[in-house]
Amino acid sequence: MNRPIIQKFSTESRADLSGERIQRLRQVLAARKLAGWLLPRADIFQGEYIPASENRLGWLTGFTGSAGFAIILKRKAALFVDGRYTTQARTELDRKVVKPVALAEIGPETWLRQQAGAGWRIGYDPALFTARGLKRFENAAAEGGFTLAAEESDPFAGIWDDRPPAPATPVIDHPVAFAGEETADKLARLQARLAEMKCDALVVSECPSVNWLFNLRAGDVPHLPILRAFALVPREGKPALFVDPARLEPALARRLSGLAEIVAPHEAPGDGRRELAARLRQLAASGARIRLDEDTAPVGLSALILSAGGKADTGPDPLALMKAAKNPVEIEGSRQAHRRDGLAMVHFLHWLEGALARGPVTEIDAAIALEGFRAGTGQLVDISFGSIAGAGPNAALPHYRVTEATNRPITPGLFLIDSGGQYRDGTTDITRTLAVGTPTRGMRDAYTRVLKGMIAVSLALFPQATSGAQLDTLARQYLWQAGKDFDHGTGHGVGSFLSVHEGPQRISKLGHTTLLPGMILSNEPGYYREGQFGIRIENLVIVEERHMIRAERRMLGFETVTLCPIDTRPVIRSMLDREERDWLNAYHRRVLDALSPGLSGDALAWLEKACRPL
Asked: What is the 3-state secondary structure (H, E, C) of 291-320?
């Protein structure tokens, strides 16, 4: 292959060094008269995806997952993870040094209240906590008799010797041909909304929202085409965008100059936090009411605003729903991206079937091949996340990332491949679980139940004002009937050439945001038997209005935009009812109609076979 591989399969995780690194941290804490430290996997922007320079949790503990929370005390250390990472944490950590704890068993605030002594001072970095995220620890401190100490100085600064530099990638224009709406129009809508909210300004602290609002993109986070930056939008007048002007491509700089004030950060770490603080003090001195995003704004901002005489209005970021409901250009872009991605998937699946027949194929072989087929479209900007290519027991880790150390050959049973691409016109995310040889009856039963749940969500009709939490049961019902379940949400929101995980919409027990037309979500139930196999089937769907005869309410449903065959070989056909078979056959007809014009020869013959009706 002549092109460089985007994803890497080495790991910088050094759990073997966690004992030494934690000891060095404890020495820093002792010098500050602190008995412990609260460490989320977060940066100042509170995003799920963070640059290597901000992954303090991974550097300290060796844990490579995308979500976790550590508490380091004088003689104990614990890492708290959700159901996606319980097995992975046990595997990756040096458990003599850091204890993995499942959030389903106990929350970090409860554990801390049980472990901390009266009078202890527990430190934290206020830049890495939201007000809501800190509140539970404040309550625990009040109940447990210890205190929380906000430390403005990062204790990792003096001990993280090989810390990567902060990212500073070029910032490019995201033209209206892809965005579908000019920045000026987005700003006008936002400022009108601020007037309705009686807010004088909004701090935009969620990076994808900054990028969406100003129609720009960068590459500050692996696989996430964003600029890490704050913005401050007043109810009237020009907003401020905190970014080094030297990073802006010339045409973008000219466009933005008429829309916003570009404020260059003058001090490390270069993220604009100090310049934002200065602007907020000035604005708050006039008594301004300033909206802070409850999910991403650092807790220190509200204290700063209050101390300067302003009003900190903490609540939902109004940009979140504006960004989530895609416009017609973004929706059509998603359709085009998924057709392109579907062709790459078909070439990959055809290749994989032949490669397995010829000899051994490893997880890394599969991930590299799939990335190559996506690159072969000529329009791939990046993958949308590191491919989850899981064979055998590795597939039982929902967020498994294959490395040279964990790489396995694909052996008879089931093989799970979860992957996606970043294209200028859309972001894709697809999972297929494939039969290799002859899966066991238990595998086939679980596979069919997962498929039935995915079809149930695909077929769902629901009235307006319905939330994802109300639909989540549809995906689980057939697993529940067999005493099974899965420990992740059924679906997450997806951005438009932005984050593959986008809120606030999701299909989950915790997904209480109303689903609106234009929202893109994943539909991905699964099942995981630890140490044996894993199953997930995922399509992306778009919420759309459904016109129904005699409907008494406005009804909504889903358009499935992912175009790729679903493996029918593991299906126990007698477990599907007529409606489910009809849906699957109709989906495969649509896949064949959409993709066959772009295929020929053996690849077309493979697709025709894969799309045969049940």
From this structure: EEECCCCCHHHHHHHHHCCCEEEEECCHHH
